[in-house]
From TrEMBL:
Its cofactor is Mg(2+). It comes from Methylobacterium jeotgali. Transmembrane segments: none annotated. The keyword Signal does not apply. Gene3D superfamilies: HAD superfamily/HAD-like (3.40.50.1000), Trehalose-6-phosphate phosphatase related protein, domain 2 (3.30.70.1020). Pathway: Glycan biosynthesis; trehalose biosynthesis. It comes from the Bacteria. This is Trehalose 6-phosphate phosphatase. The gene is otsB.
Amino acid sequence: MPDTTALFLDFDGTLVEIAPRPDAVRVDPDLVPTLERLRERLGGALAIVTGRPIEVIDDFLAPARFDVAGLHGVALRRGGVVLGAGAEGHPALRVKIPELEARLEGLEAVLIEDKGASVAVHWRLASERDAERAQAAVEAVAAELAGAYRLQLGKAVGEIVPATATKAAAIRTFLETQPYAGRRPVFLGDDRTDEIAFTSVNNDGGISIRVGAGETVARKRLGDPVAVRATLRAWAEGAPIDPDALADA
């Protein structure tokens, strides 16, 4: 029932396959048209909820501009209006970036992704030893910022984010206003960073959908981004929007 659904979509590992480097993601040519058709069918109640900055999502999904919760909810764009502080609003984090870089010096396969209001350390391409060192470094810096910031671990990545920023909070913010208000939230994500949002959506009477394998609190599951795109395409083309019919997680 499209008039009662509010659809929230993670990006990496959900809409697109995870790449070795964040900038190496490939977007399926049919993804943007599918999302645009589906957004229209849902009366605008479709948003991307991601750890990426909003402007990076815009680059990947150009020329379309969707509602986006970026940086795990630090910044949120709804109806073209952006809310949330940029890098200038996070001086305590900014002064820790050089320390993090120093801890990771010499680890060429480890990537530091400075997002302004958060910072991520990626070790997907690193050796096991270097990956352990990278995780230890980001954990140490996060501990020094405890209280104002928290560490969010995902697939070969650790990210330091503002403590109050979660995808769950971002989804609930969307649900407070039209066209999302009064609708049933449906959230698709692939990583343990999405589990808090799965729990929140479950508690709010919505449907949580885990993409890929792994233990989860999500109620439903799709196998991979290919299956996600096929499902979204079917919904966009007029098939019943019935996430309850998906396989149980």
